[in-house]
Amino acid sequence: MFSFMKFNVLQQDLLPGIQAVARSVGVRSTLPVLGNILLSAEGQKLKISATNLEIGIVKYLNVEVESSGEITVPAKTLVELVSGLGPNKVTLQSEGEMLTVESGKFKATVNGIAAAEFPAIPLSEDKGVSFPKEAFLTSSQILFASAVDEGRPVLTGILTEASDGRLDFVATDGFRLAHRQFDLPKGKMQFKSLIPRRTFEELLRLLSEEEVEEVSIATSQNQNQAVFSIGNTVVSSRLIEGQFPAWGKIIPEKIVARALINKEELLQAIKLAAVFAKNEANVVVLTTKKGLLKIESHAKELGSQENEIEGEIEGEELTIAFNTKFILDAVSNAPSTQIMMEFSGALSAVLIKPVGVAGLQYIVMPVRLS
């Protein structure tokens, strides 16, 4: 059966919608329809959808619909076409598997694929739980700690849990951990899922584009998808299956030394240490002394360096080694001018806290010195 569709929309309204959705098309897919955007016009709304089967995005726009219908067209072609039109009224009309785009004296026809071949994007009937947009944006401070290697899929996800009036985001790759906690209004809010890091990165991009107050999350009917609602946009993401580590047990409890230092001074010192750490398993050695933090690194072929930073350092004198990159990532992501490092022994994890930022902590496991 042929599908006829016709609607009118302003180019400046259509372009941001198709650009946002186009980021989720399946680029290297064997299914050609996954490289397409689905356009569905009904009522006075246009529904724009794309998916790569891991993440799907649906955006709703108000348009002037003359005839309801749907078609899928190549995402790249549509974005390039609409980008080049300039701010004018655009008429899109489909007949069968062909889309006509008209604006002023311009007219183009694009070969599409029938909408029936487009995979369904799982959505949720459930309202789910809602968080302030600000709470969700803070997840950007912890994403770096999740694993990139697909060898342990559970570590590539971000644990997202709401319960007892708090929201926790946790990321770990087994060598370091980042935890962001946010207080929520007390209530019966319960949600726990392991969400791919790529989904978070896409959601953070969408949040910077949408003027909204809150984000809501629900799970799909079969419980294997998380469905996010952000204003006029819905994002559906597959969930990662498996058991996330018992992260609460990793947080050091017994603190034997503390160092309160200027973030920029520490960052500069670690970057300098990294020059000599590259060849020797990327190791930097920290020594706590009263009022001083000593930072050393060496490489057999290159040479060595040592540096001292002044700060409020108290407790036991310790010498402890870390992977330079892990310390660097934690310190550079901390949104503060001062850093508190809490040590629980020469072979125990260090707790790194941005001073003045409640609910954010980084944990880095030490390296054994041979």
TrEMBL record:
One of its GO terms (cellular component) is cytoplasm. Residues 5-122 form the DNA polymerase III beta sliding clamp N-terminal domain. Residues 249-368 form the DNA polymerase III beta sliding clamp C-terminal domain. Residues 140-245 form the DNA polymerase III beta sliding clamp central domain. SMART domains: POL3Bc. It is found in: Cytoplasm. Keywords: Cytoplasm, DNA replication, DNA-binding, DNA-directed DNA polymerase, Nucleotidyltransferase, Transferase. NCBIfam families: dnan. This is Beta sliding clamp. The lineage of its organism: Bacteria, Candidatus Daviesiibacteriota.
